Amino acid sequence: xxxxxxxxxxxxxxxxxxxxxxxxxxxxxxxxxxxxxxxxxxxxxxxxxxxxxxxxxxxxxxxxxxxxxxxxxxxxxxxxxxxxxxxxxxxxxxxxxxxxxxxxxxxxxxxxxxxxxxxxxxxxxxxxxxxxxxxxxxxxxxxxxxxxxxxxxxxxxxxxxxxxxxxxxxxxxxxxxxxxxxxxxxxxxxxxxxxxxxxxxxxxxxxxxxxxxxxxxxxxxxxxxxxxxxxxxxxxxxxxxxxxxxxxxxxxxxxxxxxxxxxxxxxxxxxxxxxxxxxxxxxxxxxxxxxxxxxxxxxxxxxxxxxxxxxxxxxxxxxxxx
DNA sequence: AAAGACCCCAACCGCTCTACC
DNA sequence: CGGTAGAGCGGTTGGGGTCTT
Length: 322
Hints:
Elements: H1 19-32, H2 39-44, H3 50-61, H4 72-85, H5 89-93, H6 101-118, H7 129-139, H8 144-155, H9 157-165, H10 177-182, H11 184-189, H12 197-211, E1 263-266, E2 269-272, H13 291-304
Antiparallel strand pairs: 1-2
The structure holds a DNA duplex.
Region (Disordered): 271-291
Protein name: Transcription factor MYB80
Keywords: Developmental protein, DNA-binding, Nucleus, Repeat, Transcription, Transcription regulation
């Protein structure tokens, strides 16, 4: 059973594309456009699956694509948008002209995740590791805290292992939220040997956000837009733990009307909160609106809210979410 | 110099969504 | 309204290049 394959797999070539195949596909699309991918390989004289042709075109051959390295500003945009949308690569790529979702995804997985981990920031939650540990300690009593801390560490064990085995990182001052709290320039200076400007800028954003939070959890309120104006992000602390769903109510706080009370995204999922701080189930619910419509509305709330959710003004977005 | 480890990224897989009949 | 095909999406894989030992 299952879905009918998009093509006869036996008669279809797979693997790397040759320049000849690229030429055939490009010239065919230049003449006839991209309607009906199933017919394109047949008409273009290619022994390829239509899906393979579509991917080759959208990810590589399209004339408007950039193929070079990601710039610092592109990396910053990815990090910022990832903190909001999670692994919604197509949404993120839509804000980066000339970049595909595949590009963004690959760059994230191979470079940016490690950069963030190297800075002591969890690439899933975009929070400093120390913050996560503090939250565990303040939210739960032992022994649950110990178990959850162990599980949380397991979430980024690959990055930690990478750091331990490949790139020793100077964590001085980095694992202490108190050290981060009062002076972000100290925080940056403690790793002054690091030349990567992107890393510095990301650190600046992170430390600034932390600086604006006067105390550690639970006093800080991630759903309070004023407390994390510069680098607000969804504070879903344990996104990979079954049954653990962040909501303002879980910290005994009544939800306000900030952006984060409406949308909490993490990892590959995006969970919307209703006005009472209760999570919708993956944006699926009854009502007239389609899921996409609701999601876009949620996004537009973020981008168009009176408060600046993060230092990426709505005007700067290539594709405003409206 | 050679072998193994690691990295990167193009391509594939399978699922979901949407449009159309 | 249900079925089907096309398209889009995110996760994963595989192979070639580079680095390390």
